[in-house]
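[stage:ingest] chain + small molecule (tungstopterin)
[stage:ingest] validated
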Amino acid sequence: MHILMYGWTGKLLRIDLTRKKAVIQDIEPAILKDFIGGRGLAIKILWDELPVGVDPFSPHNKLVIAAGPLSGLPAPSSGKLVVASKSPLTNGYGDGNIGTWASVAIRKAGYDAIVIEGRSNKPVYLYIENDKVEFNDAKDLWGLDTFKTEDELIKTHGKDVGTLLIGPAGENLVRYATIISMKGRSGGRPGIGAVMGSKKLKAIVVRGTGEAKLADPKAFREASTKAYKEILEAENYDFWIRQGTMATIEWAQANSVLPTANFREGVYDNYMAISGTTMEKMKVERRGCPYCNMQCGNVILDSENEKSELDYENVAMLGSNILIGDLKKVAVLNKIADKLGVDTISMGSVIGFLMEASEKKLIKEKIEWGDFEAAKELIIDTAYRRGLGALAAEGTMRMSWYLGGGSSDWAMNIKGLEVSAYDCHAAPGMALAYGTSPIGAHHKDAWLIGLEVKMDRSAYNEKKVRKLIEWQRIRGGIFETLTMCRLPWIEVGLNLEHYPRMLSAAIGLDVTLDYLFTIADRVYALIRAFWIRENSEWSKVMDYPPMRWFKEPLTKGPFKGWKLDLEKYEKMLELYYKLRGWNTNGVPTKETLKKLNLDYTIPVLSKYVTL
Ligand code: PTT
Ligand code: SF4
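[stage:predict] done
[stage:export] tokens:
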């Protein structure tokens, strides 16, 4: 078991907010070996420890903050962290990946993960310094936005701390509130910030002064230096530095996947006004996550003359999706979402849904497409659950249950999580990627559209399904268990082999990509088991995309007239299940569970479904 002496710290900090107690515990070596860290460790803890059917806002739900064995080490884009919980938006497994100095600080403080349970009787924030934990009064911070909260905490504790905070949206239990750090990094789309709010936990501040022990520091340094160098020498590095993820606007328009008017269309006439090219001319600053030499945060001055850090998803969902074709105004909406601590993707989808509901007279309020002032007011009202904001705070799935009138067809979510910014009328592979994502409709696990645009767009074939599984293994598996940023690999082509090389040097085990793929499959199967255990009405229909993409063809652009075919989608889904070793209802079979060392899930799952 020498592996535990290196790379991992092997320690978990468990914090009980009800009793104001903290204990340091060992993590079983076998668990680290089987799950690595990040998402892997998070789902293992949530499966083992949550009472079945727990209400996500109950004190018995837990917030897991999990790093990986390379997090916080000088390796490319390693300053990331997974935040996870049972989601109040989806009622299933939810997580997010946030770039933050808290990742470095947690590891330097000596932990691979922090588990937060219980609920404080009044607002608190945690100050963690190595093995010391303080439960500090947060009465003066409660109600502040995330930027002011960060300023106050840094004033009190100094600049060399890592922070994870919530804003008013998290405090007021908006179901898609996120955790914010560094005034512009956000994580936990499925409402992980609201779980933090339900525990009356305003912030976590961490300072660490130790160092992780590495099995072979020299080999690690060499492997990591090589990887950093390969990034700098990449052909498109300079372009990346200029535009980052914002380049995707023009690409999405060209490929007819830019969400427009609540995903009615995949092209937007005014797309250049919100494009990466336009952004470049306004850019005033570049920001990024720790230990990253790609620094992709593009900052511009918004129409209120304040700084706002833009990414593709933010701009597409708060721009073309609600028909606002003015980047400075979109930047205002983005900044407000960051300050209030609400997910920009879900927020943009919710606003689009309400604009459409207004047009169809399902609500009495008048909210016109492209109305910037109405959108701004709606974000603020949502964070405080005021007026229409109280409904908006519930997310599109619950809003459609409430409003009826066929609105579930155009409530753009899967399993409750709003679809991120890629329209799928003419992208069946990407639709399947959303359908089978382990947290609901997020692109993070498989951005299949990146490959699909180079394939036959109309095909529902095995090649796409196999590629989808391969990408889920890489993106949802390797990057989410290591908790490292995937952008060096996907955007500038960093060779994937660097990761097992760096990991082997850190933990002292000879790790291969195949080994990491098996871990990815284990994590996927356990997350699926969790969804089934927590949702008694589980059925494969939960893996279907919104009906708009099947029923209403595109009316514009190069794919005019296209829509998805339900029968073909179902066939592709069946093939996906088969290749994963899951049955026709999307449930992992007994053989698959045994093969992945998940035998302990069998008696539990047998109570709910046929295996
Ligand atoms: C991520 C999702 C994304 S994905 C974006 S923009 W993107 C939105 N960003 C938001 C934001 O900003 N503010 C806000 N209030 N809400 C937001 N919601 C949306 O959240 C982010 C980058 C990006 S920018 C992407 S693609 C990559 N995502 C990674 C991932 O998921 N895993 C991984 N291993 N590496 C990744 N690298 C990239 O990180 P969620 P961040 Mg994010 C302001 O958290 O919940 O996973 O949702 O973390 O530090 O902001 O970096 O065009
Ligand atoms: Fe953060 Fe961007 Fe670097 Fe990834 S590439 S670590 S998101 S700055």
